[in-house]
Design goal:
single chain, 593 residues, alpha+beta, f41 fragment of flagellin, N-terminal domain, Beta-Lactamase, Helix Hairpins, 4 domains, 11 helices, 12 strands, 61% helix, 14% strand, disordered C terminus
Amino acid sequence: MPTTSPISRDSIRRNVLLGFGFVLALLAMLPFIVLINTAGYRLLSGQMSSSYGIIRSVDSVLRLLAEADRELLRQGPQEANPKKGPLKELSTQIQKELDLLLAGTANSPVQLSRSTRLQSLLNEHMGLWQPSPGVPPAKTKSAALKTTAQQIALLLDEIRAGELNQLDSAEKKGRKAGRISTLVITSGTGLTLLILIAAARIILRDIAAHRRSQEVLADHHNLLSSILDTIPDNIFVKDVKGRFIMSNRAHRKFHHFSEEDPIEGKTVFDIYPYEDAVQYAAADQNVLDTGVPVRNLEERVRPRSGGEIWLLSNKAPLVDPSGRTLGLVCAGSDITARKQAEMRLQSFAAQLERSNAELQSFASVASHDLQEPLRKIQAFADRLRIKCADQLGSAGLDYLTRMEKAAERMRGLIQDLLQLSRVTSRAQPFEPVDLNQIAVEVLGDLEIAVEKAGASVSVEPLPVIEADPVQMRQLFQNLLGNALKFRRPEVPPRIHIRCCLLPDPAQPSHCRLEFEDNGIGFEPKFAEQIFVVFQRLHGRGEYEGSGIGLAVCRKITDRHGGTISAESALNVGTRFLVHLPIKQSSTEKTFSS
């Protein structure tokens, strides 16, 4: 706001300079207009002189050609000799005029073409002057001379007509240029007077507007202050010396300044502890010196009321239209609640990370420690069966068999739990993996199961992606193993693996692998439940397994930054959709279980 008055004075000064500058420019243009017109008249004069010369040459050629033809007829076609006497002199004059024609029409392609054709006709015509080896009939030679003479006359008329047209055009241009020059000079003089009058009026109007702007300035300042006071963020303006020159209500309330105790004129040293004020003043001075604004700066402040508050600050230099720095404008938002929430979230994340690490360690240790008691149970059960089978009887042997089966299931569960924990604990670095090779190796491992089930497996071309090769093999083996296991009775399994590159096959960023079978399927409402650890849709007596394979698949896709989902219908089949990135964002992706 304080810069309005100087800007108005500059506007008045600029209008004065522009007005008188334009007048001087018009006056300075007059000599140039005269010079341009003079050059134009000279050019037109040269063109007219050239056209008159060409017309004179045309008339001379016609005249000389007529004299030569009369001389030829006087001497007779057989006795005439163009290499001596009058014919030679006339031939030389004709050639001289023809050279003038060629030179004069050199700048006009049309006229030059006509002059060139004229030269050819004259050569042909004068060639008839030569005495013939025989004695041709005079009547025949006279007819040829007459024909070429007529053609020459017609061509000369065309040349003359062309030059007359150019003369007419030049005269029109000259008259037009004269009228324009007169109009320009007259208009320039009148326009100069009008501009002088208009400039005087503009200057007087600007002076009056400058007076009115001073009156409006206070209203604008009050309006701006009212608008700023409605904003809940702290907004203030400082001058180049760091003194507050404007502040909204939120900022004054933040620092507990009242209307009787205004903040204007004070500095940060008046409202902050000294060590904090030094830091804030240095930061403000850096913005003023460099002209580089500060965006979204989170800083902790200690206001006059005490305590600590977090502010999100944005600072920018305040410059006038000429680029001169006038001060600094700043807007700050109270983000104390958000920072406290972030700190609580960080604390919770750290606790969760420790909990995950402890759970992973527990899964690994528990799976190892639990196997030792199971081995003893199975070992003593074997000894009991061997040494005491006769004493146990049929009921005892049945109990022993159930115990052995329970121990075996417990051993399988522990192994599966250990396998699930190893997805992250024993993960390998990502590297280029050819999924075609993975599919071939897994089908080789499952060869006996495929033959036993009478299954047919088709694999379309698969891409090379950045992945953990061991886990990709595990993913393929679990999905193909499920397709072979959950098959319909008396229906040979048909398994199809395909791939689609996304979003554009030319520049893919992800791929979608599809594992489709014609097995027993499941109801769509269980599409997410099948990926939960130890969740089974069928009893242990129907299908073997612990229900952990698909949970491992999901954990593998999560680690690779992908997803896995299933689409199925009862007694129709299942299709697993696996989305994986072609390239990983880093060579080793960390993952919290």
